[in-house]
Amino acid sequence: MSIRKKALVIEIHPYHFFLIPGSVRYLEELGFIADILTRENKDADDILLNANVNNKRYLFDDLNVRQILSGICVEEYDFIFLTSLEYFHDNLKESALKFLRFPVAVRDKIAGIQHHPELIEELGHEWMAEQGRIFVLSDVTWNNIKLKRFIPFFLGNFYIRNTNNRNIMTVGNSGNRYYISRLIDYIRKNCKDIEYQIHMIGAIPRYMFLKWVKYLFRHYAGTVIYSNKNKYYRNICSFKSMKSIHLFGRLDYPSMYAELQKQSFILIGMDPLTQDNFYKGLTTGSLLLAYSFGKPCILEEHFAEAYGLDASMAVIFRDSEMDGIEKAVYMDDEAYVQLVNNFEKKADEAERESVFNLKTLLVRMNIFE
User: Fold this and answer.
1) What is the structure's pLDDT at 103?
2) What burial class does residue 313 get, using C-beta atoms within 10 Å of its C-beta: 0-12 exposed, 13-18 middle, 19+ buried?
3) pLDDT at residue 185 is higher than 60
4) What is the largest CA-CA distance in the chain?
């Protein structure tokens, strides 16, 4: 009986925990025993619990990380995988490798996910990109090298029941309030004869969330002129418009998952003018949530192209006119079922591609036969 290989999955930030369950799952599919090294974050622990990740886990902080790495004998692992290769802290952008200071003996065992491919040179990760050790979440080419995709979207085995109830959810920071308000305004004006709901979960501090609420009431309860990128918009609404908008604020993960299961679509309400980094290498976590829960996305065409989504599996609109977004509200049940089926096939394809790319790298590194 052969001895199973051991892998160590590391997340250096107190966030990005949502990438751990999928990374562990893919490694275990390839026969690895996967241990985990993270910071302590009791809020994010629910991500691991919901995904039934019961793997051996080590905790670290800025003061003891090197002692922890020494204590767990990091050299004994066959493979070390970082779910974030960059470390943002104290207004600094630093390589996670530099911060962790791995022993020289493990350098050839390391690979990971680069969330900001534009920082590859700044962080000194060129050697990793050249050796194929950098994975990305969407299609990215760096220095004429097409980086391989690795999309660990698995968050647990949920009971998914997709129904065309015209519930649309936007999560976290996948958008900005001006742009989302324009989207809602377009829906309001073009979908007057049908019921719909827009649910907003904001992973933002309480004081910012209250500003959001104040903004929406001002925007939807009177005549307001507001500007964005030197464009001016006039909106005339009533309090009736607010009945279709539900503001949840910050939820714990089990509550967010419960709300996600009730939705028909996930709205990725990002502005292609001000958030173009999200279709030039950076990927929104809302896409991974959509994959995990099988909820088709509503998104602008620039982001759809970057994420490999077409009209058979997503509702895509143009920024200039926002035409097309009303299709989500008026879509009949048969068309919705087909959209969901195609989106689920896309998610399955992303998982197969991720495992294949990981296996290919491990073979090249002489870790996997």
Assistant:
1) 86
2) buried
3) yes
4) 73
